[in-house]
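Open question from group meeting: does this chain pack into something compact, or does most of it stay loose? Before anyone orders reagents, we agreed to write out a predicted structure and look at it together. Recording both the input and the output here so the notebook holds the full record.
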Amino acid sequence: MSVPTLPSVEGYLLLEKIGAGSFSTVYRAFKRDDKRDIVAIKCVDKTGLSKSTQDNLITEINLLKILKHDHIVEMRDFFWDERHIYIVMEYCNAGDLSSFIKQKSKLAENVCRKFLQQLSLALRYLRNHNVCHMDLKPQNLLLIKTKSVFTLKIADFGLAQFLSSDDTKHSIRGSPLYMAPEILLRHKYDARVDLWSVGVIMYECLFGKAPYSSNTFAELAEKIKDMRPIQLPKGSHISEECKDLLVRLLKHEPNERLTFDEFFAHEFLDLEHAPTKENFDKAVELIYKAVEADQKACHRDAYHLYCESLRYFIPILTNEANLAKKEALRLRINEYIKRAEQLKDASVAVDRRKTTGDEPSTTDTTAKVASPLASSTCNGPDKNVAIDFQELCVLGRSTANMLPALEIGDVAEQYLVEGNYELALEKFKSSLKVLVPLLKKEPPGRRKELLYKQIDKWMKEAESTKAFLITQDMENTAERASESQEQCLIQ
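Structure tokens returned:
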């Protein structure tokens, strides 16, 4: 069997074909003067290109000239000869998300979250440039693997358009299975079509198939025209945050679909703590503040600041591919965790003594560490906090749901004292879900002031508790990995 001859491209040596489209073929290649510089070259046959295809190609090249982001495939160069246009791209060595899903059958929720977080960071960048991709699907989401860390990158901007949230279009663009209903039905549409596509991708990641999987285009179109409800597969289990995002993305009516701002702010994605350079800087700044508060004996403030920094540091740690950097960061994080745990244990000891009325023992080392927390917090004496809470409970009786929500928050604090962090976090969330909307409607006055203080306190407690749970997950994962390595060595 003869080996197909690869085309000749000036300045590059083509190694193998890695993809193909209607008018283009993609090859893995390297520069002739630098064999370490592996790239992907898209070779587009100019002969027979329609006017619309030429326009799409020009748009793609113009967009890739200006779009520079960690989660968008980078265009290194482009040039042409009599027959072909060549686009030199960054090479993604781990294939695409479609192949990855097929290989795994379906993805664990935490893996899905990581890929969606990276995709949403790129989409946020595109929205800031008024760019709508128009063809988001797993085949256009390429993967780079460094050590055990995967990085997702959006590719193929052939159908992309400059489209603000207010602009509307009519023309059909995209792949039918991932195409928003308003496009397929030839209704007016705007940039929110990308959010529907994200919903379909998310569904496929979680369950291994698209929500409207069909054998023919006619069958697919019929399901969408009928607005058939999208159901989760029987026996599937996903978190409430994950389900909420999925359901709100896959709304047939664009006006019922969540907005881009709501998408980027969604709890499941947690973009606020994504592993980015900006968030690393935030984490470092929080550590400086935590150390400063610790030195001033403002121990409760220090505890919350350490925990807040961990929310940023831990995703950065898990995403770090450089082993030396990862180990150095792990050692630093372990120091922050240790100090935060000391402050937490001290705080719990103080709260227990308040509940039981016991005096600290002279031999109790935990109590000795705790003594500054009892008298030197920067938020004022705990006695005043308790009095304020009782006053708020009295004032809250006149508003439906306020007093029950305050009681749930109080129960959360009790769980926290007992060290039951998962239940504490669940109760804090339930309480805040009711109290935060009530605060927005509350008129100025004493009750609003007290409610704001209580919500602020419980939000900090909830964030700190969540940070500790994430820290425990990280430590348990590290222990399991260590045990697995030991078993391999024994075998």
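Observations to bring back to the group:
Confidence is low (pLDDT under 50) at residues 362-376, 478-491.
The first strand starts at residue 12 and ends at 20.
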